[in-house]
Amino acid sequence: MHSKMRKVPLLVGIAACLTIGLAACAPGGSTATSTASLGSVSKTVTKDKITLTEWDQNTDGGSDTAQKELNAAFEKKYPNITIKRVSQSFSDLKTTLKLALSGNTPPDVVQANQGYPDMGAFVKGGLLRPMDDYAKLYDWTSYYPSSLLKLNTFSSDGKTWQTGNLYGVSQTGELVGVYYNKAILDQLGVSAPKTIDDLTVDMAKAKAAGILPLNYGNLEKSPGIHLYGVVQAAVAGATAVDDLVTAKSGSWTDKDNVTAAATIQGWVDKGYINAGSSGISRDASLASFGKGGSAFYVDGTWQQQTLESDMGKTAVGFTTLTPVGASAPVTEGGEGLAWAITSKSKHADAAAAYIDFITNAKAAQTLLDTGNLPAVLPTGYSPTSGTLAADIADQYTEISKASTVVPYLDYTTSTFYDTLTSGMQNLVGGQATPEQFTQSLQTDYEAFTKDRG
Amino acid sequence: MSTRTNAAPPAGTVDARARRSRQGIAARPAGTASRRARRGRRDLKGYLYVLPAFALFAVFLGVPTLQTLQYSFYDWDGISQATSAGLSNYVGVVTDTALSSAFVHAAVLMIFYSAIPVVLALALTLIVSRAHALRGMSFFRTVLFLPQVIASVVVASIWVSIYSQNGLFNEILRAVGLGDLAKVWLGDYGTALIAIGFVGTWLNIGLCLVLFVSGVGNIQPELFEAARLDGAGPVREFFGITLPALRGQIAVALTLTVVSALKTFDLVYITTRGGPGDSTTVPAFEAYNRAFNQGQVGSAAAVAVVLTIVIIIVTALINLLQPKDVE
User: Fold this and answer.
1) Which of residues 19-58 of B touch A (CB under 8 A)?
2) Tell me, what's the ipTM?
3) Quick one: which of A387, A385, A229 has its CA closest to A305?
C-alpha cells in the first residue's frame, strides 16, 4: 500500500507534463499584426547609443570586403550606432534565419531570400516590416527599376509574390550565365556562344580537342538549379519561365522544359560534362575552371572576383544566351537577397538609414571597386573593355533594359529547392529521363498551388 | 516497533546497507515489513539527490522531446499558426518514399557501421591478444581510437578528398592497373552509400577493437592455461573462452555503433547532402532538412520520433545479448 501511495504523485507529474506539453495551443502562436500601425518614419536617426544587429550572407571575397567597408563608413557617419554583423553562407543563413526571426529579439536588419520559401513564409508570419513608407522617404521607388522592386514585394498574407507591400531592397545585381576561358576558345577558333546551339557546337569542338567542355560540381546540389535555369531560360524564353515560377500559367512538363532537360542530358551522354558531378563540390569545379580545366563554367556573377583573381581580369569572359527568335538574352538572376527590417526591431528609422546607406549610389561605387555587381549601375560607369567586369556590366545593362531576367527556379514552391536539386542530380546521373524529371517538378508545383488555394 | 525502527540512527542504516551489498543478492529476500518502510523513506530522500540532475534532464531533454512529439501531430512551417494534422505525418513516414528509403539507407549503414567493424575487430582481437604484453600497446590503442576523436567534419572532408576524381582511392586503383574503375565514388548512384558506409567502418573499427582488447585483458589467464593444457588451439580458445567472455563488450560495441549508424547526420551532410538524387538520405538528415530548409516541421518531428523509437527498440534487442550477471 505504501509503495502504491508513493507512485501517485509521480503518475500525476507525468500526466501533468503530458497534458501541458500536448494540449497546449498549437505551435506557432498568434500571428503578429505587423501592418497595424507602423508609426511615422523619419530620416533623422536617433542620437542615443544603440546597436544595430545585421545578418548577411556576404561571405565571398568581394562582397565581404564591401560589407566591411560599408559598415565601417556607416559607423563613422553615425558614431552613436554600433553595427553588430553576423555573416554566414547562403545555406547557413537560410537554415538559421527562420529561428532567429521567430525569437523575441531578432536582428534589426536581415537579408531575406526572395520567393515563397523564405520571404513569403516570413511575411506570412508577420516577421518583416513593410517598407513602402521608407521607399518613399529614401526615394527607392525611383532609384530601382520596377522589375527589381517587384521581386521584393509580397501580399501582406505572404501568399502572392511580386505584388503588394515592399519588404526590402537589394544591394547587388545577379545574373547566372556562362563563363568561358578565352584562351581555350581562341585555340578552338570559336567566339563566345550566343545561343544554346552555339554552346553545344562549341562544346563538341572542345571535346574533340580533348578539352573538358563544362566543369560542373554539384555536391552542394544548388548548382543544379543554375544549370537547368540557364538552359531552360535560353530554350523557353522569359515569359514562359516567369509565368511558371510566379504560378501564373504553364506547366513544368511543357515541351520547352522537357527539351531543356533533354539538352542537359545530351551533354552528359556526349561527355561534355565531367562525370561524378554529384560528388564534386562547387568550389572544386570553380577552382578547376579557374586553372584552365575546362572551356566553360556555369555560375552567377557573384563569382566575378574569385575568377578575376584566379585567371586575371581579361582571360575569362561572361556571356548569356539568347533564345531563338528573341531580341535579348534571357537568363536566371535578378538581384541579391533583400535587405529587410524585422517587425520587432526597436530601431526601424536607424535600420532604414543603414539599408539606404549600404544600397545607395555611393555604396554602388564601393561595390564596383571591390569586384561586385551593384543592383543599379551608377550612371556613366564604363569599365575597361575586354575585362570580365565589362562583360558582366554589359550583359546586366542589356538584360535589365529588356527586362528579360527570370527568377531563380527554387522560388517556385517551399519544397522546390529539394525537388529540383535532387531531380537535377537524377537527370545528370542518368537515373531519370527528361520526362520523369519535369514530371517530378510538376507534381511538386501542383501540390503547392493546391495548398495555396 | 515500526516507529522505533524508523528513528534508528543513520549509522545503523549505513551498516545495514554495507552488509547487504557485501552479501550481494542473497540479502534481498530477507526484507521485513519494517525494513521496507525504512527503505521507503530512504528512497524518498534519494529522489532529492537525483532532483538537480532530473531537473536538468527535464528542461534540456524531456521538454524538447515532448515538444517534438507535439509538433509531430501538426502541419507547421515553423513560423505561422500550425494546423492539426492527426497521424498524417506518421503515415507519411511509411508512404513517402523519400522517408521510407531514408530508413532503408540507415539499415544498410548499420551493416557497415556495426556488423563489419565488430566482426573485423573480433578477428583482429584474436591476433592482437596472442601478442603477450605488446610493447607500446597504449600507443596503438590511441592510434586506433583516433578516428573517434577527430571532429567528424574533418573526417568527412578528408574522405571527400580521398573519394574524389584524383583522390587517394582512385590513385591507388590507377597504380595497381585498375584505372578503368576510377570514378567519383560519392557522386555515383551505385557506390555513394557504400562509400559513406565504409567511412563508418573506418571510424568504428578502432572503437570496437579497443573495447575488445581491454575485455580480453579481464579474462583470467588460468582459463587460457587450462584450455591449452586440454589441447585447444587458438581458434578453439577464441570461440570457447574469448568470445563468450566478450559478450558484454560486444553488446556495448553493437549498441554504440548501431546507434551511430542510425543517427548519422554529419557524414552525409558534408559528403553528399543526401545525393546523388536521394540515394544517401538518412532519417536524421531528412529531419533536419524538413525542419530547417523545407518548412515541414511536423513531418520532421515525426521522422525524429520514429527514429527515436527505432533506436530504443534496437538497443533493447541488443541488450538481450548482455550477460545477465553483468550490470
Assistant:
1) 36-37, 40, 43-44
2) 0.79
3) A387
